[in-house]
Design brief:
461 residues; alpha/beta; 2-enoyl-CoA Hydratase, Chain A, domain 1; 3 domains; six-stranded parallel beta sheet; five-stranded mixed barrel
């Protein structure tokens, strides 16, 4: 009886433990509004960032989180990706709190637009925001002044920057100013300063932003942020206001998945260009040596990844066409040396690479170092291939009996002055001197029909 009672007691305790674990997991998954999900934007804003924020807000909605905290530390990024993020924030059923952190972080350019779009905005001490002038319509060549750079005749200390002379720059600036003003009016923040950040690239520290009604509070860390926004009313996507209950929320940071990590790497323009080059030359090597397989597989994968990355970026298709034309010229030059095609291909590649991206957004500029190294490697490979082909042209063609003369062969069997030898993986009839033994290596001295005439190397002397 005692043994039976102990077994029953153990089963009851195990069932209770299982039930407690199940209820804990169920409560954690349902959240009951007691979860604060942190989504980090750290670095330049691009397609990978937009995907990460979209997935994060969807996860916050699925888990019924009380709030989603968008922690910002960014120099800016692409306008297209920024607008995607803002559209997701405005449509989110979960209140989004923008938080520029940690100390030393900044929400410049695109980060300012995103902060204005959030339901509540906060900054950590020692952070800043602003400088939201659009820079996507920049110079067609990296490192050269853009059209708006010509407009620098304003006096030092002027509070109002002169209007851009370039029509496209003016249109982009006016559109950006209207966009950020609409966000400011939606969230009840300082719309005049928002427009000033766009037109004059103005910036503010955390304390100054609080005084200017650009943000709602300054919080030194996440617990202070949750305590500071507790009880504040926010207007949801449905237009209804509700108070937040953020005190003692469980904070969880959403880590980006493997797909987003890969996307963040390949959407770097320099990586995309390198992937395309590897892809093209991999296919060239596969076509030149059929059956190698590996160069073709690697090349096709890299080429598709490079094209996929460029499709996500705002590229200039004329620049892409020039790059591809330059590579084709260099490949043709390798197999048919003319010098003209090689130089033309190099020039076309450099011009195309410099024109490839239509943006000067932070983190999305092509590096001249990468362009120069890629061009040098392509040109060097072209010269090396051309050199080998040129040397091969000077070697007289050897076919038929000429190709067999002087070839080393192995004696398979021998009797008297005749026998059989192994030549180029085949069994041949042979005749020659006497005394040859199986396994001995001799040379072909002549070809008589289908019979090889062989002799020892010393016999030629």
């Amino acid at each position: 009886m005692k043994r039976t009672g102990a077994v029953v007691l153990a089963l009851v305790l195990a069932a209770a433990a299982w039930l407690a674990t199940f209820l804990s997991i169920a409560q954690e998954q349902s959240g009951n509004g007691r979860l604060a999900l942190v989504i980090e934007i750290d670095g330049a804003i691009g397609p990978a960032t937009a995907r990460h924020v979209k997935d994060g807000l969807a996860t916050a909605a699925e888990r019924d989180a009380e709030i989603a905290i968008l922690r910002l530390n960014t120099p800016g990024g692409l306008v297209s990706s920024t607008r995607e993020i803002i559209a997701d924030i405005l449509a989110s059923s979960v209140p989004v709190v923008g938080y520029v952190a940690p100390s030393g972080a900044h929400a410049a350019s695109a980060g300012t637009y995103i902060l204005y779009a959030t339901h509540l905005a906060a900054m950590a001490p020692g952070t800043n925001l602003g400088a939201a002038t659009p820079v996507e319509l920049g110079s067609p060549f990296p490192g050269l002044p853009s059209p708006s750079d010509d407009n620098k005749d304003g006096k030092e200390g002027d509070k109002t920057a002169p209007p851009p002379k370039d029509t496209m720059s003016a249109k982009a600036t006016n559109d950006a100013a209207a966009f950020i003003r609409s966000l400011a009016e939606l969230r009840g923040r300082n719309a005049d300063w928002a427009e000033k950040a766009v037109r004059e690239a103005a910036s503010l520290s955390a304390d100054a932003a609080l005084k200017e009604r650009v943000i709602d509070l300054v919080a030194r860390n996440t617990p202070a942020l949750l305590e500071g926004i507790d009880g504040r009313d926010v207007k949801g996507a449905d237009g209804k206001e509700r108070p937040l209950a953020t005190r003692d929320l469980r904070v969880e940071t959403l880590e980006p998945g493997w797909l987003i990590r890969i996307l963040s790497v390949i959407t770097n323009p320099n990586v995309a260009v390198i992937l395309m080059l590897i892809g093209i030359y991999g296919l060239v090597f596969e076509f030149s040596t059929p059956g190698a397989v590996a160069p073709g597989v690697i090349g096709l994968i890299c080429l598709l990844l490079g094209l996929f990355a460029l499709d996500l970026l705002p590229i200039d298709y004329a620049g892409l066409a020039l790059m591809l034309l330059g590579i084709v010229f260099l490949i043709v030059e390798a197999f048919n040396p003319t010098i003209v095609l090689g130089l033309g291909g190099l020039v076309a590649f450099l011009l195309g690479a410099s024109m490839l991206l239509r943006v000067e957004a932070p983190g999305f500029q092509l590096s001249w170092t990468v362009i120069a190294i890629a061009a040098a490697m392509i040109f060097g490979l072209t010269l090396l291939t051309g050199r080998y082909l040129w040397r091969a042209r000077k070697i007289p063609a050897r076919i038929g009996t000429q190709a067999m003369r002087g070839l080393p062969v192995e004696i398979l069997d021998w009797s008297g002055d005749a026998g059989h030898v192994a030549a180029q993986g085949e069994r041949w009839q042979a005749r020659g001197g006497e005394g040859f033994v199986p396994g001995e290596t001799v040379r072909v001295t002549a070809v008589d029909g289908l019979t090889l005439v062989v002799g020892r190397p010393d016999d030629d002397k």
